[in-house]
Amino acid sequence: xxxxxxxxxxxxxxxxxxxxxxxxxxxxxxxxxxxxxxxxxxxxxxxxxxxxxxxxxxxxxxxxxxxxxxxxxxxxxxxxxxxxxxxxxxxxxxxxxxxxxxxxxxxxxxxxxxxxxxxxxxxxxxxxxxxxxxxxxxxxxxxxxxxxxxxxxxxxxxxxxxxxxxxxxxxxxxxxxxxxxxxxxxxxxxxxxxxxxxxxxxxxxxxxxxxxxxxxxxxxxxxxxxxxxxxxxxxxxxxxxxxxxxxxxxxxxxxxxxxxxxxxxxxxxxxxxxxxxxxxxxxxxxxxxxxxxxxxxxxxxxxxxxxxxxxxxxxxxxxxxxxxxxxxxxxxxxxxxxxxxxxxxxxxxxxxxxxxxxxxxxxxxxxxxxxxxxxxxxxxxxxxxxxxxxxxxxxxxxxxxxxxxxxxx
Length: 409
Prior knowledge:
Elements: H1 12-18, H2 21-34, H3 39-63, H4 67-74, H5 78-114, H6 123-140, H7 143-166, H8 172-177, H9 188-196, H10 201-211, H11 219-249, H12 260-272, H13 274-307, H14 313-337, H15 341-353, H16 356-367, H17 370-373, H18 380-404
Helix pairs in contact: 1-7, 1-10, 1-11, 1-13, 2-9, 2-11, 2-15, 3-9, 3-10, 3-11, 3-16, 4-5, 5-6, 5-13, 5-14, 5-15, 6-13, 6-14, 7-11, 7-13, 10-13, 12-13, 13-14, 16-18
């Protein structure tokens, strides 16, 4: 496949998933707090995501299995297999329910910034409406149709966030300097958060499920899937950088509300007029709603792979839809009860971040097995790159655990 013949494919779901309210929050905070100085962290995160998502897609294309199936099939004994299945299910079920709450809350906050129902509709009602629409799409939507909808939402986000750069003044020389790795004072935790909100564990399962049957299990199919991943994830990285740049462009102003998302929207409006606030809010709505679909879809795919059986498509479909609807219901309930949506979004990031190093290690192991992948198994360079990503993910997970225990502030 040549670049000129490229059409958006399954990897766009990855971008739709990781450009959610958590990413927008982290990027807005980074830009407001540290200007352009942490753009390099998003470059690293984007490259890491491409490496891991390529492995997940390759495993699925060559083996014909979802990632959960491939991991369980590679487990050496029934006790290991059951323990692995329980870990995957518990972590994705709990983590994605938390993420879903943040996604729904972020969508509602974006609608509020647009002024939609701000005077007539309370945040809990906005959360209920968002959850209801997401549930309806899961019930009646077909996989191919949902994929097209998510691709459209990604393109809408691109128009909003990249379009926002057109209406603001950007110091491009300072932005270029931010691509050189450095850590401004007190920026370590923010840099780690930028990486953690981009390399999202459940995207590995979502991507593997979505590529099955769409690419041929040969060199040409693998190359086409790799190009799809590289283009889609790079677009997501550019969107994240656009939000950092928006925050940096307004960083000299005093905080407006204490919420990074509201701060950046109000600062943009004060500096560059209502159009700047509107495009940012539209991007936030697209980010929240696209992720409101991908989190339950990923959880549904995983549970259907583990419990659905290989010869009963109807059973798999039932498990998939019931699981996805359960995640939406739990996330909506949490969003309705939440006092501060930004805090909920950050808690969701931490919950799923704990799973990241474990899944990255599992993926590296499965992608290196010549018994199942043959000549498409990881070589030395792929293992070296994957090992570096696993190391960084492990440090990220350790930091989250220590922070939760109060050992690391």
